[in-house]
């Protein structure tokens, strides 16, 4: 608990600004590369850093997206991106989906992930989401464990077959 | 090659009870053995008293990383395991069965080895590739009630620690203040980081360098490590408090100690890199057969103490100083495990032994010729196992030392007699 408090004193979680985009994009790319460890269909494109910057910049300007950063001093050490999606056929009809979530290794296991997730859930609720979902590679056992521990359950499956 | 064919291998089992006639088999085998078996059935711990289990270990490998030879398979690993068995017997009086196994994965490895427990007093894992070896050791240690030892991890780390103790003494350094750079992130150095930390070194003052450069928590491959080698991942998180980045040159700037256990040299470590170390630098170059740099180059670059893995240079940092003694001690108290505390006590005792004989920069550690070191270290291990509550049997240090000396002397004497009587014939010319 003490360790958690100390870590939290040093690291703050807030909504991202334009100044954070470059560093946050680096973390998004690290996460995409991590995804590649689970499946070759997540092989990262060469210009991923540029794409990640553009992706986050657009998200910052969108009313249906949310980008949170964890900051230590002036450094971005964690990023969470989520978006609000209509659920056309189901109730509840609006969901908040976490699409990207990455924390630098050094800052893991200090409850920062929990803090960011709670903060994101509240923000998504304010944006109208009545259910929070998270997407990640099916074989990412670390993510499965993280979300399962927080009462998330598997909702949909996406199966793939490469035709290359 | 010719000798191996001539002798048909290096070790064999020999009876240790009198067989005066075939009638004696009714004592040693059936029907006499039934009473012993029934006793053991009632209390399995008696298998340590009524059978040779108390002195038996297995040397187990899957042949996936055999010294200097790589992935050669279990059959080809057998001569190497036989050699190790010979060292165990000659220096520690331990009956060590060479046992390469054909297993496809970690699961099968663990299952196979753990099933051998009833016959053995200990397990020596050998020449198994990293990072697989970390998981195998961790799991077997967790589930077996006899010591499981991986010599490439604990043995090498222990002997490195012994050599570091005396090097620090000679160069007037405190372990907690010492900056240690480790080149190579295989079984030996990953284990050395842990053991050095347990022994009082500050992990934040350690830097580990591998083929991709300095290990640090923000390195690009950290997530790969998390998934594929979590032991190295933990080392990356725990070390390099100064967040130094770059390569070996940067890692060695101002370092007190270099422990290189990477790959054969002799140009892996450069003179200018050693020249950048602190005054009175300590340099261990442990790759075989060719050290990461020649010792003469290290000295020319300013190193005060240089050690290698080779016997033809001063200061051989060699596991053989440690493993026969640690198992002798562990077996003599019927230890359930070998803890880091026991390895640290062993390293201290080895260092003290060398100190008693007179420390110099060219003699920081005993050699295999100093056979008195083995009973002395064995006794220390036995005492430490009792202190840590890991011993099934109690004995004083004096008793343990005497007992170890007797067993080791008997082993050497037996060999001498077999040679004198030409039961072991001289090698062919």
Annotation keywords:
heterodimer; A: 164 residues; alpha+beta; Aminopeptidase; five-stranded mixed β-sheet; 5 helices; 5 strands; 38% helix; B: 429 residues; alpha/beta; Rossmann fold; 3 domains; six-stranded mixed β-sheet; four-stranded parallel β-sheet; 46% helix
Output the helix-strand order of chain A: HEHHEEEHEH
What is CATH's topology name of the largest domain in chain B? Rossmann fold
CATH architecture of chain A: 3-Layer(aba) Sandwich
CATH architecture of the largest domain in chain B: 3-Layer(aba) Sandwich
| Measured distance between first and last alpha carbons of chain B | 13 Å
- Overall geometry of chain B: globular
Radius of gyration of chain B: 22 Å
Beta fraction of chain A: 15-25%
CATH superfamily of chain A: Gcn5-related N-acetyltransferase (GNAT)
Mean pLDDT of chain B: 96
Structure report:
The complex is a heterodimer of chains A (164) and B (429). In chain A, helix 2 crosses helix 3. In chain A, helix 4 (112-126) links the parallel strand 4 (94-103) and strand 5. The radius of gyration of chain A is 16 Å and the shape is globular. Chain A is of the alpha+beta class and 164 residues long. Chain A has helices at residues 2-10, 21-36, 48-60, 112-126, 141-149; strands spanning 11-15, 65-72, 75-86, 94-103, 131-134. The longest helix of chain A is centred in the N-terminal third of the chain and has 16 residues, at 21-36. The two termini of chain B are 13 Å apart. Chain B folds into three domains: 2-150, Malic enzyme, N-terminal domain (Rossmann fold); 154-308, Rossmann fold; 320-420, no CATH class. Chain B is globular. Chain B is α/β, with parallel strands linked by helices and 429 residues long. The interface between A and B is small, with 8 and 12 residues.
Chain-wise SSE layout:
The complex is a heterodimer of chains A (164) and B (429).
Chain A: H1 2-10, E1 11-15, H2 21-36, H3 48-60, E2 65-72, E3 75-86, E4 94-103, H4 112-126, E5 131-134, H5 141-149
Parallel strand pairs in A: 4-5
Antiparallel strand pairs in A: 1-2, 2-3, 3-4
Chain B: H1 2-7, H2 25-28, H3 33-42, H4 47-50, E1 56-61, H5 73-92, E2 95-100, H6 106-114, E3 122-125, H7 132-143, E4 148-150, H8 151-170, E5 180-183, H9 187-198, E6 206-210, E7 213-214, H10 222-228, H11 230-238, H12 248-252, E8 257-260, H13 271-275, E9 281-285, H14 295-300, E10 303-308, H15 323-332, H16 340-357, H17 373-387, H18 397-420
Parallel strand pairs in B: 1-2, 1-3, 3-4, 5-6, 5-8, 8-9, 9-10
Antiparallel strand pairs in B: 6-7
């Amino acid at each position: 608990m003490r360790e958690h408090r100390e870590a939290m004193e040093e690291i703050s979680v807030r909504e991202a600004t334009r100044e954070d985009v470059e560093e946050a994009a680096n973390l998004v790319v690290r996460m995409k590369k991590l995804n590649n460890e689970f499946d070759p269909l997540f092989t990262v494109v060469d210009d991923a850093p540029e794409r990640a910057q553009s992706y986050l910049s657009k998200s910052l300007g969108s009313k249906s997206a949310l980008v949170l950063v964890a900051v230590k001093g002036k450094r971005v050490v964690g990023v969470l991106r989520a978006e609000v999606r209509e659920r056309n056929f189901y109730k509840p009809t609006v969901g908040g989906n976490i699409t990207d979530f990455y924390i630098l290794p050094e800052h893991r296991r200090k409850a920062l992930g929990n803090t960011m997730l709670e903060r994101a859930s509240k923000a998504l609720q304010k944006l109208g989401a009545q259910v929070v979902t998270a997407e990640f590679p099916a074989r990412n056992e670390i993510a499965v464990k993280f979300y399962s521990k927080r009462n998330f359950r598997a909702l949909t499956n996406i199966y793939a077959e490469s035709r290359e | 090659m010719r000798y191996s064919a001539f002798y048909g291998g290096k070790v064999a089992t020999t009876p240790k009870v009198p067989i005066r006639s075939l009638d004696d088999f009714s004592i040693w085998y059936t029907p006499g053995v039934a009473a012993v078996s029934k006793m053991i059935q009632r209390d399995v711990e008696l298998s340590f008293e009524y059978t040779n289990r108390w002195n038996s270990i297995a040397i187990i490998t899957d042949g996936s990383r055999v010294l200097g030879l790589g992935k050669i398979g279990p059959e080809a690993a057998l001569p190497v395991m036989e050699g190790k068995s010979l060292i165990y017997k000659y220096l520690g009086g331990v009956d060590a069965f060479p046992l390469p196994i054909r297993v496809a994965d970690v699961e099968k490895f663990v299952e196979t080895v753990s099933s051998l427990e009833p016959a053995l007093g200990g397990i020596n894992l050998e020449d198994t590739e990293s990072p697989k070896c970390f998981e195998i050791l961790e799991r077997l240690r967790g589930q077996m009630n006899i010591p499981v030892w991986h010599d490439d991890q604990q043995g090498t780390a222990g002997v490195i620690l012994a050599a570091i103790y005396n090097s620090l003494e000679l160069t007037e350094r405190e372990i907690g203040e010492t900056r240690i750079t480790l080149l190579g992130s295989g079984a030996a150095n990953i284990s050395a980081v842990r053991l050095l930390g347990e022994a009082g070194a500050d992990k934040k003052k350690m830097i580990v360098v591998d083929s991709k450069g300095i290990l640090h928590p923000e390195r690009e491959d950290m997530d790969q490590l998390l998934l594929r080698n979590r032991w190295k991942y933990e080392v990356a998180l725990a070390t390099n408090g100064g967040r130094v980045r770059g390569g070996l040159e940067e890692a060695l700037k101002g370092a007190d100690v270099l422990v290189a256990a990477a790959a054969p040299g002799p140009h892996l470590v450069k003179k200018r890199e050693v020249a950048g170390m602190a005054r009175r630098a300590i340099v261990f170059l442990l790759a075989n057969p060719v050290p990461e740099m020649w010792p003469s180059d290290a000295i020319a670059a300013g190193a005060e103490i240089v050690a290698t893995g080779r016997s033809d240079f001063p200061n051989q940092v060699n596991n053989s100083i440690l493993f026969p003694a640690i198992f002798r001690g562990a077996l003599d108290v019927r230890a359930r495990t070998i803890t880091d505390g026991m390895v640290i006590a062993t390293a201290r005792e080895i260092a003290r032994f060398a100190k008693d004989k007179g420390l110099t920069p060219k003699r920081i550690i005993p050699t295999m010729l100093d056979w008195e070191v083995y009973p002395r270290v064995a006794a220390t291990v036995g005492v430490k196992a009792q202190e840590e509550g890991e011993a099934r049997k109690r004995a004083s240090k004096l008793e343990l030392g005497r007992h170890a000396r007797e067993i080791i002397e008997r082993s050497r004497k037996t060999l001498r007699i077999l040679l004198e009587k030409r039961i072991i014939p001289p090698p062919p010319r």
